[in-house]
C-alpha cells in the first residue's frame, strides 16, 4: 500500500484513492490553506511554525509520494499582468510570499529524494517559477525529469459566458522523480475542439484538479510501483547469481593448482550457468522462422553495432528529450536476423531496424520500377496480342518501336501493374534508367 500526501493542495488525489482501492494507494494528509491545522484554524505556510510542523509530519509519516502545487498566481502570466495595477509594495510582498512557498516545497521534495521516495510538482508552463534557482537545481538532479501536458485532455473545463461548458487547454508543466508518472501526464491537445478563455476572473476555476487528472496521477503511482518491483526482482536475481558464482569459485581451489586462474570460468557451476543463460536466449530466422545458433547471431549483431558506430546515424540523448520534443516515447528498434547460407554452412546477417514508421510513408519510400521490369511488362503485353504468319513482321516491328522509344509508364494499365518495394532503400538513378531510350537486343 503506497502512501500519498499533498502540500498546498486540498484533499483531491488523497480522496480519489478511496474510490479506487484496487490501485493499492492510501492517502495520508493534505496540507492546504483550506485544511484544518492540528492546533485550530487552517494551515498558513507564511508562518514559520506551520512550515516546521508540516516538515516534521512528513518526516514522521514518510509518505511514498508527495504531491505539491504551491500558489502560482504571482508567477503566472495573468498574475504578472495584474501586478501593473498594484502598488509596488504589495507586489514585492506577494512575490516574497510566493518565493517562500516555492522554496518550502522544494525543501520537502529534496527530503523525499533523500529518503528514496518520490515527488510530483505542478505549475503552469508559462510560470516564471520554472526559472527560479531552487527549481532549476532540483530539475538538474539525477532521476528528476519534466514534461508538459494539456489539461483539456484530462477533463478540465469551464462554463463560458453563453452557459456552455468548454475545455480549458492550460499547458501545465510537471516535475517528478518518476518517468512512468510523467508518461501519464504528457498528453497534448490536437486542437480538435474549441477552448474556453480564463480571462475575466475565470482563472481560479482552472486551479481545481478534475477527476480524470486525479485518476491519472494515481495510475502513475501504480505504474511506478510496478516498474520498481520489476527492477528489484531483476537486481535480486543478479545478486543471487553472483553469490552462487563466488561460493562455487571459493570451494574449488584446485583451479589455481592446475594453472587455470584467470583463464577458466569461476567454478564448474558458474561455467554451466553461463551456458544455460546462453541457451535460454533463442534466435529465429526472420524469413524461414528456423532457429539460429545463438553464438553466431551474437557475433553478427556485434558486427552490426560496430558498423553503426562508424556512421553518423545518431547520437545518444536522454529519453526525456524525446518526450519534450514530440510528446511520445522514442521509436523502438528490432533485430532482423537472416541466414544467407544453409543449415550446414551458416552465414548469419543481422540488421538493426526502426519500427512504427508506417504512418510516415510516402511515394519516396518506394523504389521505382527497374528497366528489366519495364521490359517484362512490354513483352507480356505484346505476347498477349501475338499474331502469326504474315503479321509476324508487324509484331516485331511494333515491339522494336516500343523498345527504342520511351516506355509508356504513364499508361494506367501499366501503373496498376507496377510493384512497390516496401523498403527504405532506393536507387536514385533507377527512375532515370526507366525513362531512358533503350535499343532492342
Residue ranges: pLDDT <50 for 5 or more in a row? Answer: 251-279, 387-393, 399-441
Give me the CATH fold name of the largest domain.
Rossmann fold
Say what oligomer this is.
single chain
The domain tally reads 3
- Average residue pLDDT: 76
The CATH architecture of the largest domain comes to 3-Layer(aba) Sandwich
Percent of residues in β-strands? 5-15%
Task: Please count the beta strands (DSSP E, at least 2 residues each).
Answer: 12
Structural class: alpha/beta
Overall body shape: extended
CATH first level of the largest domain:
Alpha Beta
User: What strand order characterises the main sheet?
Assistant: 2-1-3-4-8-5
Summarize the helix and strand pattern as letters.
EHEHEHHEHEEEEHHHHEEHHEEHHHH
How does the major sheet shape up?
6 strands, mixed
Radius of gyration equals 34 Å
Total helical segments: 15
Could you explain how this protein is built, in words?
With about 450 residues, the protein is an alpha/beta fold. Helices cover about 40% and strands about 15% of the residues. α12 (about 370-385) packs antiparallel against α13 (about 390-405). The chain starts with a strand and ends in a 6-residue tail after the last helix.
